[in-house]
Amino acid sequence: MLKKYVWPFLKASESIVGLNHRNFRLIYKLNNRFDYQLANDKIKAKDFLNCIKVPTSQTYQIYRGLYDLRNIVDDLKNYASFVVKPAKGSRGNGILILEQSEKGKYRSLSGKQYNPSELKYFIASIIFGKFSMGHQDHALIEKKLIPDSRIRALSYGGFADIRILFAREKLILAMLRLPTKTSDGKANLHQGGIGVGVDLISGITTQAIFKNHLITKHPDIDAPLIGVQIPDWHRLIKISNLIAQKCPLKYIGIDLILEENDGPVVIEFNARPGLEIQNANQIGILEHL
Question: Which positions ≥6 away from 130 have C-beta within 8 Å?
Answer without folding.
Answer: 86, 94
